[in-house]
Amino acid sequence: MADIQTAAGKMLSQDELYENASQQYGAALQRLASIYEADPEKRTDLLQDIHVALWQSFESFNGRCSVRTWVYRIAHNTAASHAVRQRRFKQQMFLSLEEAETARDWNEVERAADNVKSLDRLQQLIRGLKPVDRQVILCYLEEMDAVSIGDVTGLTPANIATKIHRIKSILTRKFFKGGSDAD
Predict the structure, then answer these.
(1) Which residues contact 158 (CB under 8 A, 6 or more apart)?
(2) CB neighbours (10 Å) of residue 125?
(3) Rounded distance, CA 177 to CA 171, Å?
(4) Each residue's pLDDT tens digit, 7-32
């Protein structure tokens, strides 16, 4: 079992490493799962698979990379495997009743619905990217630098910068021109 020493000299067990990573990166893992899986039930299963894989992986974690890099590498690999196994279904996202009730007027409801549609559209376009491009843009959206993204994907920082620029251009064009993810 992997034991990693903290700055205070305390050794962390597999369970402690997982617990710390889960607390620190839980929200990012949820965002990652939502990009890889549109169906809420399958997304929950994917997130659970990511957490299981993460916990299992900490048995062999040796500290050669940062915990953040390790978490993203495991999460992306698990999500990519999931995407290969799953058949994608298109799903339309609607405004929830809670959002409609809390809205002050119909203009606010329409804006909220437009925001939900825009986010859904962007997620749909990202889902349509090749797995490595999806990894790069998701890491970028999580504000990782090129070196860290390279640790996760195995690409060079220069290659990552080029990919990010191209992916952003493609997503922008498809988003505003209504192009499908198959364009």
Answers:
(1) 146
(2) 21
(3) 10
(4) 445 678 889 999 999 999 999 999 99
- How far apart CA 65 and CA 128 sit, in angstroms, is 29
Single-letter amino acid code for the residue at 150: G
> Residue 3 phi/psi, 5° resolution?
-125, 125
Looking at the DSSP assignment, which residues form a beta bridge with residue 12? 4
Indicate the DSSP class of residue 101: H
Place of tokens 């986010």: 119
Beta strands in the chain (DSSP E): 4-5, 11-12
Residues 6+ apart with CB under 8 A from 77: 53
Q: Structure pTM?
A: 0.58
Residue 82 has, within 13 A of its CA and on its CB side, a CA count of 25
Per this entry, what is the length of the chain? 183
How far is it, in rounded angstroms, from Cα 181 to Cα 86?
Answer: 17
CATH of 4-85, picked from 1.10.1740.10, 2.60.40.10, 1.10.1790.10, 3.40.50.1820, is 1.10.1740.10
